[in-house]
Write a structure and sequence with these properties.
heterodimer; A: 240 residues; alpha/beta; six-stranded mixed β-sheet; 10 strands; 26% strand; B: 626 residues; ABC transporter involved in vitamin B12 uptake, BtuC; 2 domains; two-stranded antiparallel ribbon; 7 strands; 70% helix; 4% strand; binds adenosine-5'-triphosphate; binds magnesium ion
């Protein structure tokens, strides 16, 4: 490994009861590149993200984040190192107002440790970013699906993560919204490492500098998008 | 001699097992903490005694007791609890309501003097045991107990019915997937659990009898056994029942001074070492949303829309104008009101402070503590003792708040690792056991007579007794509300609410959620302890009931009634409930029953067991607390 790795995984496995969902993954995501993970439904993509974030614990294997072994660190400890993520199903604070949701994110100890103190201003900024100013005082559970998705992404950006895991951020958005999001991700990648799971190849593939295909809990191909899309096995899975 | 104690303990243990088996079954399968279990025990005992007295024979009496309990239990499930599936807190409130009603009606029908089932001569003999003689009715327990335990074990572990029950203990989702009719299973399990309660009541009626208050003792014992054995585990219950039975019997005779800790110590030990009990497993929790079967009331659209808009407004702290208006009214009150009214308003203010504490934990923190009386009681007794030692009143109150904090830290220590129904169980059990200790530890706490103490407030003395008390209570109230207001507007409070809504997201944002939750407990404890301390001075005496489940239930109902999590919840709830109690107790002697109905109705309405529907037809849950 000559390039510094954002994220590196060795011999990672995860079983739920008798079912092995992640079956021995070795992979490194290098810094300065936009990474896309694809794979059929149930391939284990979200589970892989949950293992990275610490939301679930691996059965075996080691995980390195931003140059540190984080296998035994808790979710919040990993966040403190600079890991951020969005969830496939929006994971917000449904009883609180939109602005309170953003305030909680802006008030996070991740920012406090870096000495950022004006969290209200950060939250205001994020409110504009997700274009929810008109719904500022509304409870999040009254938001539409699309609005919740926007808030979800805005929240994960507030903490300025060094590495951002995006789990199907395009799902359920309109064509225009997807394009806008793609532009945002592109701009963001200048300062933030991005690993994205996405089914919508049309929008996501042009973003990707490196493509990894997950199938039945194993990596079946990894490399430049052109290369990988030529892989006969990948073409077979995707019926190309 | 020791043999006798051990045999005694084993017989008692078998009765305890029967007492607790139904409770643990219902909790294990349905996650319902059935507070009415004690009532069903009492009902079984009373019915058995009445039937026996009418000359039907002992066996018929026992059968009748068991059956009546089964029917009442099944009816409560079918009519009420079924409509609140999955809302553990609402279900407990309903069963507390049933508990109050049954207790009150039992008092009405059978009176307050202890009754006992007199055995016919052919059964009231004793059996030689070494060089002693042992009464047959208890010896029968040594046969019936293990036999029933085996039968139950066989039914749960070896039959088809048992397999479905076990499947739903492990995973409700799987149970539904393999086509189990959950509603039917629920009624059956409830009937069986209640049958066991009635049966144990009937069997125990020959020596424990039936009397008011026995229902609470039964609940206490069942809680301890379930916590030790592990929810849903029959084997665990049996082991725990034998342990408690023998410990109690041997302990009482050999170390009478320590006997009260013999329940407490093993339970606390288990809670610390294995929060899910000796034989219990952590409930991974069916993620499935239960099917609701609410009663729907059609209301005019305008009313419906009003409820909806209230429901969807985010937490609003009232403006300064309202606060100023209320402050003026409260300050001016002594000019116009009689001492009697001042007394009642003082009570409302005291309970408001207590409810502030619970609103922080339940409303903001989403932690449905059923052991809140622990803080109140601790504060009250500490203040009483401070008076006995001759300390000034406000020092006593500081001690009270501090004791609430300590109690909260202990509660957090044992309860923080548990979730949902298990959390309710653990908080309830802890408070109940402390209640039991205070109740019996006569030399220190005055036992059930309580403790009269000389503690008093030193300020405002020149205004005369009634006004002085009111003025002091108002002062403490004002300070508390100020602290509450600052807290509710703080970043800390927002974090606590964030954990309530979505703990995993908080962690993902880098928050240390454990530490933040702990603060919610401690803040809650400080208010609770302070309220208890003020109450002790207000009342001039303290009693074990301050630690009791009624105290916890009352403050819970207040907060829920005021819509938990809203800023005004403690004030609205305390005013409404204390007012209701005052009015009811003046109107009818059966006010406990009416209050029980209130519990049931509030729980049904606030948690969606009864919903409003538009005249037009769309259905929505009535304002959900939490
Ligand atoms: N907590 C869990 N317990 C048991 N099985 C699980 C759990 N979480 C995921 N699985 C299983 O693991 C497999 C992979 O799930 P995962 O959510 O990671 O897939 P995915 O690749 O993200 O799919 P999708 O594209 O649909 O989001 C699935 O078969 C799923 O059923
Ligand atoms: Mg997924």
């Amino acid at each position: 490994m000559n390039v510094a790795a954002l994220l590196e995984v060795r011999g990672l496995t995860k079983s739920f009861g008798a079912v092995e969902v992640i079956r021995g993954i070795d992979v490194a995501f290098e810094e300065g590149k936009r990474h896309l993970i694809i794979g059929p439904n149930g391939a284990g993509k979200t589970t892989f993200f949950n293992l990275m974030g610490g939301q679930i614990r691996s059965s075996s294997g080691r995980i390195q984040l931003l140059g540190r072994d984080v296998t035994d660190l808790s979710v919040s400890q990993r966040a403190m190192l600079g890991l951020g993520r969005t969830f496939q199903i929006a994971s917000l604070f449904p009883q609180l107002s939109v602005f309170d949701n953003l305030l909680i994110a802006a008030d996070s100890p991740v920012l406090a440790q870096r000495g950022t103190s004006d969290f209200t201003a950060l939250a205001e900024e994020a409110l504009d970013l997700c274009e929810l100013r008109s719904r500022r005082y509304d409870r999040v559970r009254t938001l539409s699906y699309g609005e919740q998705r926007r808030l979800e992404i805005a929240m994960s950006l507030v903490t300025r993560p060094k590495l951002l895991l995006l789990d199907e951020p395009m799902a359920g958005l309109t064509r225009d919204e997807r394009q806008a999001l793609a532009d945002r991700i592109l701009a963001l990648s200048a300062s933030t490492g991005i690993v994205m799971i996405e089914h919508d190849l049309e929008t996501a593939l042009p973003l990707a500098e490196k493509l990894t295909v997950l199938h039945l809990g194993q990596i079946v191909a990894s490399g430049s998008p052109e290369e990988v899309m030529q892989n006969p096995f990948v073409r077979q899975i995707y019926l190309l | 001699m020791v043999t006798l104690y051990v045999v005694n303990g084993l017989a008692y243990g078998n009765l305890l097992f029967l007492m607790a088996a139904g409770f643990t079954l219902i909790f294990g399968v349905l996650r319902v903490i059935n507070m009415a279990h004690g009532s069903l025990y009492l009902l079984g005992a009373h019915v058995a005694i009445t039937v026996a007295q009418s000359g039907f024979g002992v066996w018929a009496a026992i059968l009748a007791g068991a059956l009546v309990a089964a029917v009442v239990g099944a009816a409560a499930e079918r009519l009420l609890l079924y409509r609140l599936q999955g809302d553990y807190l609402a279900q407990v409130l309903v069963t507390i309501g049933v508990f109050m009603i049954v207790g009150d009606l039992a008092l009405l029908i059978w009176g307050g003097t202890p009754r006992i089932l007199a055995l016919p001569p052919e059964l009231s003999f004793s059996v030689p045991l070494g060089n002693l003689r042992y009464p047959a009715d208890r010896l029968i327990l040594l046969i019936i107990g293990p036999a029933l335990a085996l039968a139950l074990w066989y039914m749960i572990e070896r039959t088809r019915f048992g397999a479905t029950v076990r499947a739903s203990v492990d995973d409700e989702e799987i149970a539904q997937a393999i086509g189990v009719s959950v509603p039917k299973l629920r009624v059956l399990v409830f009937a069986l659990g209640s049958l066991l309660a009635g049966l144990s009541g009937a069997l125990g009626s020959t020596f424990l009898g039936a009397k008011p208050g026995l229902d609470l003792e039964v609940i206490l014992l069942a809680l301890v056994i379930v916590v030790i054995g592990g929810p849903g585990s029959l084997v665990g219950s049996y082991v725990a029942a034998m342990l408690i039975g023998v410990l109690d019997s041997v302990g009482k005779s050999l170390f009478p001074e320590a006997s009260l800790f013999l329940l407490f110590a093993p339970m606390l030990l288990v809670l610390i070492l294995r929060p899910n009990g000796l034989f219990g497993r952590p409930n991974t929790g069916g993620t499935i949303r239960p099917e609701y079967a609410p009663i729907t009331l059609r209301v005019p659209d305008a009313f419906f829309d009003l409820c909806e808009s209230l429901r969807n407004k985010s937490k609003n702290v009232p403006s300064g104008y309202w606060a100023a208006l209320f402050a003026c009214m409260l300050i001016a009150l002594p000019l116009v009101a009689s001492e009697y009214v001042l007394g009642i308003v003082s009570l409302v203010l005291i309970w408001s402070v207590f409810a502030i504490g619970l609103n922080i934990m339940l409303g903001f923190g989403g932690l449905p503590s059923l052991g809140h009386a622990l803080f109140f009681g601790a504060g009250a007794y500490l203040t009483a003792w401070s008076g006995v030692m001759g300390w000034p009143g406000y020092m006593g109150l500081a001690m009270a708040a501090l004791s609430g904090v300590v109690a909260a830290a202990v509660l957090a220590g044992v309860a923080m690792r548990t979730r949902q129904a298990q959390f309710l169980l653990v908080t309830l059990a802890l408070a109940q056991v402390v209640w039991g200790v205070v109740f019996k530890w006569r030399s220190v706490t005055g036992g059930d007579d309580g403790l009269i103490h000389p503690q008093q407030f030193n300020l405002f003395k020149s205004f005369g007794h009634g006004v002085a008390i009111y003025a002091n209570v108002l002062l403490v109230f004002a300070v508390s509300v100020l602290a509450y207001w600052i807290f509710a507007n703080s970043r800390l409070c927002r974090r606590i609410m964030g954990i309530r809504d979505n703990e995993m997201r908080m962690k993902t944002l880098g928050y240390n959620t454990g530490a933040t939750s702990f603060i919610a407990y401690v803040a809650s404890g400080a208010f609770g302890g302070l309220a208890g301390g003020v109450y002790a001075i207000y009342a001039g005496f303290v009693a074990p009931d301050l630690f009791g489940v009624y105290t916890s239930a009352k403050v819970l109902l207040m907060v829920i009634l005021g819509v938990a999590g809203s800023f005004a919840a403690p004030f609205v709830g305390a005013f409404a409930l204390i007012g209701l109690e005052e009015v009811l107790s003046g109107l009818t002697a059966r006010w406990h029953s009416v209050l029980g109905c209130t519990y049931i109705l509030v729980a049904m309405f606030m948690f969606g067991g009864i919903r409003f529907g538009r005249m037009g037809g769309r259905i929505v849950r009535g304002g959900k607390a939490r």
